[in-house]
Amino acid sequence: MSFENLGLIEPLLKAVHEAGYSTPTPIQAQAIPAVLGGGDLLAGAQTGTGKTAGFTLPLLHKLMTSQTGQAPGGKRHVRALILTPTRELAAQVEESVRVYSKYLPIRSAVMFGGVGMNPQIEALRRGLDVLVATPGRLLDHHQQGTLDLSHVEYFVLDEADRMLDMGFIHDIRRVLSILPPKKQSLLFSATFSDEIKALAERLLNSPKVIEVARRNATAETIAQKVHPVDRDRKRELLTHLIKTNDWHQVLVFTRMKHGANRLVEYLLKQDVTAMAIHGNKSQSARTRALAEFKSGELQVLVATDIAARGIDIDQLPHVVNFELPNVPEDYVHRIGRTGRAGAEGEAISLVCVDEEGFLADIEKLIKRQIPRESVPGFEADPHAKAEPIVLGRRVLHGAPGSRSGGQSAGRPGSGGGNRGPHGGQHGGGGSRHANSNTNKPAQGQQQDLRAPRRAEAANSGGPVSSPPPRRVRG
User: Fold this and answer.
1) CATH number of the CATH domain containing 149
2) What is this structure's pTM?
3) Structural domain span for residue 285
4) Do 236 and 193 share a domain, yes or no?
5) How does strand 300-303 pair with strand 389-391?
6) What CA–CA distance (Å, rounded) separates 139 from 462?
7) pLDDT in tens, 248-279
């Protein structure tokens, strides 16, 4: 199948071919006809499947062919609204809109927090057809009377699962109350949890449901590997791997912001170009880091889970889990940054004894054992004892057997054991710096699972976790 078979107008096909694409991905092949057909859509697609083009292309087609199009010389109104969880994803989606609408008289803009509102207000005054935004900044504009959403005909909720993880449910409900009741709505999510199904029932009207990737599946094109290593030798091992293998464009994941900063400082001292991207970085710093990483100027980009959401780089060869995530599903999202569109990729995890329990949960989720391979000179001490992971006032456990017994405060069904982001000591010389964004103990398993993410999200387009949620504009 080619894009010509999907019924898109010629200017879109020209732009798609100039962007280097000729064959639609499975999500595009199913979503584009579904959106063109006019009904609501619930789509299950993980990162790296081409879902952004799956909704931007048919929306642009409909904006140009709809009878409700703007009259020549008339004022433009926002007719298509795309809501995303993070600034980075919003910027990437709007960039895709601009690339595909290259030969169309379409105006688009992106709006998120962390930058001034005046340029955004000016863009609204000039008139827009497509608006891509994060929830907090969108509601800011609405409250100030600078944004009119009464003409919205098409609404997209992108990465809905991450929206809920970041505590955006109340903001989403507020946005829905503002939008016209009659519109075409599209919901994209990597997973179909009960919360997503409940949101879909509220948002969608008899939707068509498509799902192109098995839930929590990892791409076969990704070579996964675990390097066992002692906690205080992770930084050395990472540097060794980068230099001996002559790696370039390596995306490295840490759990917390301060851990990312300290790792970058270490890599720079080892003459490895690196920058961190997380919620405490200014928007200009994050944009610069991402641009230099994409261009190849930057060798290593160290990221937290929330900040990395939306990073979209073709043929990214290496992803390294410097610290394993305590939430197994985040492992799937992390390594999904590589091995995209049929390209081969490598996902390496540096695992110390403290994290063996996290690794077991991940392997249970993906239904496969990840090969272990010790690196000569960096073999883990077989007699090392697991230590608790300290995060502010919380003491967390990721060691083997820690999931059984005691009170469960982790992922439902994980069998117990407090789970949460690591305080950053792995590979950090044994230091245990408490995270400044601490959270009070949550009520119930699911809230406890999500609280650490929301703390990170406070500076990444999401709210701080506290009941009721307090929204930090993003």
Assistant:
1) 3.40.50.300
2) 0.57
3) 222-457
4) no
5) unpaired
6) 12
7) 889 999 988 888 999 999 999 999 999 998 87
